[in-house]
User: Fold Polar amino acid ABC transporter permease from Faecalibacterium langellae.
Amino acid sequence: MSGLFSWDAWATVWNHRESFLLGLGNTLLTAFSALVLAFAIGAVIGLMATSGKKPLKFIARVYVEFIQNTPLLLQLCFLYYALAFAGLSLGVIRTGIIALGVYTGAYMGEVVRAAIESVPKGQFEAAQAQGFNYLQRMGYIILPQSIPVMLPPMVNQVVNLFKNTSCLYIVGGADLISVTYSFVTGASTGGAYAPAYIVCGAIFFVVCFPLSTLATRWEASLKERKGKADPALRAVKRTALKEAA
Assistant:
C-alpha cells in the first residue's frame, strides 16, 4: 500500500479522514488556548520591560532570555514529566497549552516591548507633562500608536505557535502530527506514508500560508503609510520653524 501513486494508500487516507480532522481540531484547540496565554504573558512582559523600573525590567529580561535560549521540546518534556512525577497530571493537551503559551509569551513580550519603544520618547514626555499617570499614558497615548506596529510580528508568532504544536508528538499528544504518525504505523492503516504526510503538510499549509501572507502585506502597508507620513511630518515641522522665525 506504500507509495505516492498508490490508489489504495490515498483511499485509506480518505476513508480515515475523521482521524485527521480530529487531530486538526486538537491542534487548533491547543494553539488557540496557548495563544490566549501567550498574549497575556507577552503583554505583562512587554509592559514590565518598558516600565522604567529596574527590578521589573530585570525580571522580564531574565524570563525572555531563558525561554528563548532553551529548546521548546526541553521545556515541554520538563513540564510534562515534572508534573507527572509531582503527582499532578494535567494531560498532554493542557500541558502543551501551558508549555506553548509560556514559550510563545517570551516572543510576544519582545514584540510588545519593541512596539512600545518605537513610539518617540517625546510622546511619553508630553503625556507625562499633561499629568497623565502610567496607565493613562499607555491607554490613551502609547498603545494606540504601538498596536499597529506589533500586529504583523504577532501574526507571525501565531503561525510559529501553530507549527510548534507538532512538538506535542514527543509526549504522545493527540495533535495533527501525532494522529498522522499513529495512522501510518497502525495495524490496519500502516504503510500509507506519503499520502498521509502530504495531507498533514497540506493542512498545515492551508492554515499557515494565509496568516503569513497577511502579516507580510500588513507590514508592507505599515511601511508604506509610514513612508508617506514622514515627509508630511517634516513639512509641518519646516512650516512651524519658518513661522516661529
About this structure: The chain has a mean pLDDT of 84. The two ends are 84 Å apart (CA to CA). The chain has nine helices and no strands. The domain at 7-244 is CATH 1.10.3720.10 (MetI-like fold).
